[in-house]
């Protein structure tokens, strides 16, 4: 056992020294900001930075740029990184290195995003909690956990509450699994954006404005996916219940347009399968499939959804009773008080496949004169009845990632 003093830190950090890796233990208390950041700086590949139980009172964001480091706490309610007094508007923790594992701790009240990783391949977020403890507010940070531009992302057992954009967000990435997690009181519970080969499974998504969003947006840089755009996303075995929080996103954000009461929303994406979910008590729609509604200058961008399968294995209960768009109440009344489980804006050719006669309503926007230059008029409701898409290839991650998540 050896002890090292970091700069002016008032407490020592203990290091145990196995053959190939060290554990750097950092306790809460006086000087926690400096001691914890220095531990993240001096860590070597294979090391673990171990957070003691208690509350770390921090005034600035933290960063990690060393490959192969594990940051491990005593539990998602036991080791808390408290950014309530954060002075700058950045994220709580920023990771820019590969093969990093973040597990068993919490981040509270960061001024910006809770935990962001950028260009961090094979990253694991496991059993974390990110929360804005004052409840839904426009001034909360945008994202809870926020990996972007990565190949290999595993989010497992994470809890996020209060994000003013998306609780769990993965963007411009590929080979993604989001599972066994909880997203509540965010604008978007879980969002997969401009990403390919993703599976969202076994999550509980409730009390958000919108539950699970699968989006493609124009004009986004993407160093990971050829062509820059997303697809091959499977949303399965989730509980998507009562997403009824009023939208509190700052004006101008794309998610500021998400209607309260949206269960699943697919926008301008391709090869998306929604299967084996329980989708209940979402006032606007169980599933909403739409085109990107704004003008854009990205010549490669396709604003229409393509090959979206809503499978009959989903359970739809009491959705569409309070649709939050113009004319929605009258439309629901015309359907006996609730809209069909699946709503499609009617834009895009070969956009939607609804299996085994699930009731679907096309809003027929092209037929109503919507100014969309390449719009294809919608077929009648029930489009694609009894059809099936080719099954999506399963998303797999390297065994090493799974091992790190379970440790």
TrEMBL record:
InterPro entries: Beta_helix, Para_beta_helix_rpt-2, PbH1, Pectin_lyas_fold, Pectin_lyase_fold/virulence, SO_2930-like_dom
Keywords tagged on the record: Signal
Annotated signal sequence range: 1-21
Keyword Signal found: yes
Domain annotation Right handed beta helix: ranges: 140-290
SUPFAM superfamilies registered for this protein in UniProt: Pectin lyase-like
Species lineage: Bacteria, Pseudomonadati, Pseudomonadota, Alphaproteobacteria, Sphingomonadales
Organism field: Flavisphingopyxis soli
Coiled-coil portions: none
Name this polypeptide is given: Right handed beta helix domain-containing protein
Pfam annotation, one family: Beta_helix
């Amino acid at each position: 056992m050896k002890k090292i003093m970091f700069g002016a830190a008032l407490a020592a950090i203990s290091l145990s020294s196995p053959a190939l890796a060290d554990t750097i233990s950092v306790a809460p208390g006086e000087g926690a900001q400096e001691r914890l950041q220095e531990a993240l700086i001096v860590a070597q590949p294979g090391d673990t930075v171990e957070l003691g139980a208690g509350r770390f009172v921090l005034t600035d964001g933290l960063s990690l740029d060393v490959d192969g480091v594990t940051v491990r706490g005593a539990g998602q309610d036991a080791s808390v990184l408290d950014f309530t007094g954060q002075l700058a508007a950045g994220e709580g923790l920023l990771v820019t290195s590969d093969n990093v594992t973040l597990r068993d701790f919490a981040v509270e009240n960061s001024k910006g995003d809770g935990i962001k990783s950028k260009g961090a391949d094979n990253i694991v977020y496991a059993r974390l909690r990110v929360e804005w403890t004052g409840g839904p507010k426009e001034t909360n940070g945008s994202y809870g956990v926020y990996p972007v531009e990565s190949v290999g992302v595993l989010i497992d057992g994470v809890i996020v509450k209060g994000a003013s954009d998306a609780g769990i967000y993965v963007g411009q990435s590929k080979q993604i699994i989001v599972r066994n997690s909880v997203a509540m009181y965010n604008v978007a519970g879980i969002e997969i954006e401009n990403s390919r080969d993703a599976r969202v499974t076994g999550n509980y998504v409730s009390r958000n404005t919108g539950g699970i969003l699968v989006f493609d947006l124009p004009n986004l840089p993407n160093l990971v996916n050829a062509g820059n755009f997303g697809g091959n996303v499977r949303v399965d075995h989730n509980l998507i219940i009562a997403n009824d929080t009023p939208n509190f996103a700052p004006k101008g954000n794309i998610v500021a347009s998400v209607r309260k009461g949206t269960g699943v929303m697919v926008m301008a994406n391709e090869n998306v399968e929604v299967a084996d979910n329980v989708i209940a008590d979402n006032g606007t729609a169980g599933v909403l499939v739409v085109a990107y509604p704004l003008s854009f200058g990205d010549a490669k961008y396709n604003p229409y959804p393509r090959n979206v399968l809503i499978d009959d294995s989903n359970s739809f209960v009491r959705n569409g009773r309070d649709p939050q768009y113009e004319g929605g109440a009258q439309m629901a009344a015309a359907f006996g008080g609730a809209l069909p489980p699946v709503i499609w804006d009617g834009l895009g050719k070969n956009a939607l496949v609804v299996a085994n006669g699930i009731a679907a309503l096309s809003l027929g926007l092209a037929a109503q004169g919507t100014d969309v230059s390449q719009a294809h008029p919608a077929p009648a409701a029930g489009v694609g009845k009894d059809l099936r898409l080719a099954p999506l290839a399963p998303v797999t991650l390297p065994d090493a990632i799974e091992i790190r998540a379970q440790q």
